[in-house]
Amino acid sequence: MPDSKERYGTVSKWFHWLMGGLIIWQFLKLGDRISEGEHWIGQTLVPWHVSIGALLMVLIVLRIFWASGQLKQRPLHDPATAFVVKAGHLALYVGMLLLPITGLLTMIGNGYGLKVFGVQLVAKGPEIDWVATLGSAHSPLAWIMVFLVIGHIGMALLHHFVKRDDVLRRML
């Protein structure tokens, strides 16, 4: 089912919820920063961080192509807030694209190589300072993305429970 003026379609919903779940999983990596990874999350879920990031990079590219083909069918936004809504979604898309790219730059720039789901895609090698420097944007971008996602969830809940409109139901 494609997107319509009333609801998002099946493919859009799958992209939204699958990527949302994977992004929340990725945020568990921030727990390493807080507790040095000495907990069950750091030992069981975080080792998948690079692989899930690579998967998210593929998914965001596919999602951008899908979404660009659905623009005319997308639900309309309240004209009073349309600019803010579009800016917020654009920021989320930019974050979803830049995070895996900067993560990749971090891995390669620091000489770690790239191993995705057990397959070595880029061999370990020498450190490349300028690539690592670009990759150093990964952590600050992750924190910005946390706030964007919290804002996104907060606004969806505000629409559902306070404004009591159809915004959240469009994606359910």
TrEMBL record:
Residues 7-172 form the Cytochrome b561 bacterial/Ni-hydrogenase domain. Keywords: Cell membrane, Electron transport, Heme, Iron, Membrane, Metal-binding, Transmembrane, Transmembrane helix, Transport. It is found in: Cell membrane. Coiled coil: none annotated. The chain crosses the membrane at residues 12-28, 48-66, 87-108, 141-162. Its cofactor is heme b. It is a multi-pass membrane protein. Its main location: membrane. Belongs to the cytochrome b561 family. This is Cytochrome b.
